[in-house]
From TrEMBL:
Protein's recorded name: Tryptophan 7-halogenase
Gene3D superfamilies hit by this protein: FAD/NAD(P)-binding domain
Keyword Secreted: no
Active site: K80
Organism, scientific name: Rheinheimera riviphila
Molecular function via GO: monooxygenase activity; nucleotide binding
Residue positions binding 7-chloro-L-tryptophan: K80
Residues engaged in binding FAD: G15, G16, T17, A18, L335, I348
């Protein structure tokens, strides 16, 4: 129902990455018209495994006015040019979902159609020969490059790896001077209006009561307000994404620091590797139905690049989304709104896109049902589109060494994903729908990287003779190779940021 009370006092429940991202953006944009209180307890740990991001992260930091070099220095961050997937096709195979463009765009026809014909002609080019970002990643290179000099081709696209705990602290130092009030304490009680069911206040164990007009649930997997209080409901996707457990452990750093994430498939799950300046973040994602905690731990510890710096920490989860991410006067941001495993580094992005969406729909003179419904519609679409992209990796695996992977190959998939795969397999076409997060190039790389090669290509390609096609491909390959070689080393770029924070 619509409410007509002006929204003046906003309470963010939970700190960590989600809470401080939310508080920082709200105070930056609306700090002169609303009051923001963030409630967090030093006694409650954060999940804190979200250390890899995707390129929209740059837009978020820019919206806050954060200096990139200071950010990398303070969070001990590194550059991320993509994610390398190892053993996802068959054991020993690898490919990369590299950020940015591949090849040269043509009207009405994506570049990969030209590559597809070159394959049919036996020209022997690798798809990633035409990705500047991939070439830079594998040579451990990075420099800011918007366009390739002398040609009308895009430069590097990138994101970051960083210490999520340090990022939360960095945002706290940013947000508090702008007016965010932090209240330390553990919530003992949530009060609701008897008539509307809206949350009216939270009461801490200390007895302090904090009232608000709008509450942002950043309590992580606890989902204190959106689920435990409002019983919003949950759509379970574990029949498509059966993993329900993760173990996380940092290890000592090794050189060179690779400017990309690794996702390494094992017989019963997959392992992430995220290089920071001071350590490497590692973890293994698996299903307790197929693999014991002890087996997962042994696999993880046997595949670290350096000495472990702690005991592996277990995280249990259920994949899916909250039926309403905005219910009554509570908006869920981060893990309280749903969980998608970190295979494509979308966790922090979903926090940021959720806060951006909230800003666009921020209620002024009360909460309108129409706004709340549209917010939820858009959130649902975003979650489902990312879900499909993650399922794609599992469905297209070609492993036969365990029941886990065989079951993933055989599973039914959402109709939206099945349609996309069918169109691509037949004609090579893939379309970005509305504001979908992942681009056509991202889909192409996973589809091709895991062995789904289309039967046909776009007829526009035939406007080039075989000789012209070969010249085009060779010239583009040479441009990418030479440009990548001329880039500075990744380590040199990190050194230019002032080294590690003390």
């Amino acid at each position: 129902m619509n409410t007509t009370e002006a929204i003046k006092n906003v309470v963010v429940v939970g700190g960590g990455t989600a809470g401080w991202i939310t508080a920082a953006l709200l105070v930056k944009m609306l700090g002169k018209v609303i009051n923001i209180t963030l409630v967090e307890s030093d006694d409650i740990g954060i999940v804190g495994v979200g250390e890899a991001t995707i390129p929209p992260m740059i837009n978020f930091n820019a919206a806050l006015g954060i200096d990139e070099k200071a950010f990398l220095r303070e969070t001990k961050g590194t550059i991320k040019l993509g994610i390398e997937f190892e053993n996802w096709g068959t054991p020993g195979e690898r490919y990369m979902h590299a950020f940015g463009a591949i090849g040269k765009e043509f009207p009405f026809c994506n570049f990969h159609h030209f590559w597809l014909k070159s394959q049919q002609q036996g020209m022997g080019f690798d798809f990633w020969d035409f990705s500047l970002t991939y070439q830079a990643a594998k040579q451990h290179k990075f420099g800011r490059l918007d366009r390739i000099e002398g040609v009308n081709l895009p430069g590097l696209a990138y994101a970051y790896h960083f210490d999520a705990g340090l990022y939360a602290q960095y945002l706290r130092r940013f947000a508090e001077p702008l007016g965010v009030k932090r209240q330390e304490g553990t919530i003992a009680q949530v009060k609701q209006c008897p008539q509307s069911g809206d949350v009216t206040s939270v009461v801490l164990k200390s007895g302090v009561e904090i009232s608000g007009d709008l509450f942002i649930d950043c309590s992580g997997l606890h989902s204190l307000l959106i689920e435990k209080t409002l019983n919003t409901g949950f759509e379970d996707w574990s029949h498509w994404l059966p993993a329900d457990s993760a173990l996380a452990v940092p290890c000592e750093s090794v050189t060179p620091i690779t400017p990309y994430t690794k996702s390494i498939a094992h017989p019963n799950g997959w392992q992430w590797r995220i290089p920071l300046q001071h350590r490497i973040g590692n973890g293994i994602v698996y299903s307790s139905k197929y693999c014991s905690d002890e087996e997962a731990k042994a696999t993880l510890l046997a595949n670290l690049d350096g000495k472990p710096l702690a005991e592996p920490r277990k995280i249990s989860f259920r994949t899916g989304r909250r039926l309403k991410q905005w219910h009554r006067n509570v908006v869920s941001i981060g893990l309280s709104s749903g969980f998608l495993e970190p295979l494509e580094s979308t966790s922090i992005h979903l926090i940021q896109s959720g806060v951006f969406r909230l800003l666009k729909f921020f209620p002024h003179q009360g909460i309108a049902d129409s706004d709340r419904d549209e917010f939820n519609r858009q959130s649902k679409i975003e979650f489902e589109q990312i879900r499909d992209f993650i399922i794609l990796h599992y469905k297209l695996n070609q492993r036969s060494d365990s029941q886990y992977w065989r079951d993933c190959q055989a599973m039914d998939i959402p109709e939206t994903l099945a349609r996309k795969m069918e169109i691509f397999a037949a004609t090579g076409r893939v379309f970005r729908e509305q504001d979908e997060l992942f681009s056509e190039v991202a889909w192409q790389q996973v589809l091709i990287g895991q062995g789904l090669i289309p039967k046909d290509y776009h007829p526009l390609v035939n406007a080039l003779s075989d000789e012209q096609l070969r010249d085009l491909m060779q010239n583009l390959k040479d441009i990418m190779a030479v440009t990548a070689t001329r880039l500075p080393d990744h380590q040199a770029f990190l050194d230019s940021c002032g080294g590690m924070a003390k």
